[in-house]
């Protein structure tokens, strides 16, 4: 539990909810403005209403992706960098496309959550700890062992004197014969 980006997850989640609700409210407002436009002032108000509504729908989508980003950062800490960037960018875009209070709170939380997710360092990074190649899966181990394993890692013996030669050596440390 300690090696989970909990703060980034919580902030992205709450930020996403605020952006989602702000977007939903704006989409509703856009529909209302469009409704007023058609009855009172023709197409001009309806145009404004549809723009407000579309931006609101975008806010809903951004909010959902931000929530997803927070969940993904938590469930799969290895993907923290990608999702941190996504939450960060979406919170900034949502701030640019809307001016509602709820979205401002969502923007700030998403911004902090995204940064925390981005800079988060898993305490147990398998790639850093073991230096294991990405492609080496347990299923393919029998195939890669025969074909991919370097010969230098195998214990070699000198053809001349029979002494064991360390991996990477070009000459026998015992008698000096070239390998
Ligand atoms: Zn030798």
Brief overview:
This protein is an all-alpha fold. Helices cover 66% and strands 2% of the residues. The protein has a domain at 6-122.
Could you describe the 3D structure shown?
The chain is mainly alpha-helical and 179 residues long. The protein has a domain at 6-122. Helix content is 66%, strand content 2%. It has 6 helices and 2 strands, in the order H-H-H-H-H-H-E-E. Helix 1 packs parallel to helix 3 (80-97), helix 1 (6-41) runs antiparallel to helix 4 and helix 3 runs antiparallel to helix 4 (101-119). The longest helix is centred in the first third of the chain and has 36 residues, at 6-41. Mean pLDDT is 76; it is low at 125-153. The chain binds zinc ion. Residues 158, 160-161, 163, 172, 174-175, 177 line the site of zinc ion (ZN).
- Spatial strand arrangement across the major sheet: 1-2
Poorly predicted runs of 5 or more residues:
125-153
Helices, by number, come to 6
Large-scale geometry: rod-shaped
Q: What share of the residues lie within helices?
A: 55-70%
Question: Based on helices, strands and strand pairing, what is the structural class?
Answer: mainly alpha
Number of distinct beta strands: 2
> Mind describing the biggest β-sheet?
2 strands, antiparallel
Mean pLDDT, to the nearest integer, reads: 76
Q: Termini distance? A: 51 Å
Percent strand: under 5%
Q: What small molecules accompany the polymer chains?
A: zinc ion
H-E order: HHHHHHEE
Rg over alpha carbons? 29 Å
């Amino acid at each position: 539990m300690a090696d989970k980006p909990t703060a980034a997850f919580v902030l992205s989640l709450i930020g996403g909810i605020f952006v989602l609700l702000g977007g939903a409210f704006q989409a509703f407002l856009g529909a209302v403005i469009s409704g007023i436009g058609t009855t009172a002032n023709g197409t001009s108000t309806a145009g404004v209403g549809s723009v407000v509504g579309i931006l609101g729908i975008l806010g809903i989508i951004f909010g959902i992706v931000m929530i997803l980003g927070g969940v993904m950062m938590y469930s799969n800490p290895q993907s923290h960098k990608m999702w941190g960037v996504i939450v960060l960018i979406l919170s900034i875009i949502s701030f640019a496309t809307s001016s509602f209070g709820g979205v401002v709170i969502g923007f700030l939380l998403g911004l902090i959550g995204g940064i925390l997710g981005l800079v988060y360092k898993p305490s147990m990074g398998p790639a850093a700890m073991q230096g294991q190649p990405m492609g080496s899966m347990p299923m393919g181990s029998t195939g890669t062992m025969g074909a991919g394993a370097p010969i230098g890692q195998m214990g070699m013996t000198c053809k001349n004197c029979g002494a064991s030669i360390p991996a990477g050596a070009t000459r026998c440390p015992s008698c000096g014969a070239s390998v």
